[in-house]
Amino acid sequence: MSSYALRLPESLKLAAKRIAAADDTTMNQFFVVAIAEKISAMETRNAAKPLRAGCGSLVHWSQIQGL
Q1: Which of 27, 51, 58, 61 is most buried, most CB within 10 Å of its CB?
Q2: Residue 3 in domain
Q3: Do the domain assignments include residue 60?
Q4: First to last CA, the chain
């Protein structure tokens, strides 16, 4: 496990502290989960890009069989 000094606005720190306490967890755990969720969402979106042929276009099954 590695460490990283995070600089953030006081308002975000206070909100994270409040939410973490309400969830009975630490701010560190709150940040780890939030970052993991964001990474997962972005990787999922990026993985789906080849499936999208364009805005509103349908992709034929034969185009994605190799994925």
Answers
A1: 27
A2: no
A3: yes
A4: 33
Q: What is the pLDDT of residues 2-52, one digit of tens each?
A: 999 999 999 999 999 999 999 999 999 999 999 999 999 988 887 766 666
Tokens 């975000």 belong to 12
Measured CA to CA, the distance from residue 66 to residue 23 in angstroms comes to 43
Looking at residue 52, its amino acid is: R
From CA 33, how far away is CA 26, in angstroms rounded?
11
Domain that holds residue 22: 10-64
For the record, the structure tokens of 25 come out as 């967890």
Number of domains in the chain: 1
pTM of the model: 0.65
Q: Does residue 51 belong to any structural domain of this protein?
A: yes
Give the sign of the dihedral formed by CA 25, CA 26, CA 32, CA 37. Answer: positive
Q: What is the pLDDT of residues 46-61, one digit of tens each?
A: 776 666 655 556 666 6
User: Residue 5 domain-assigned?
Assistant: no
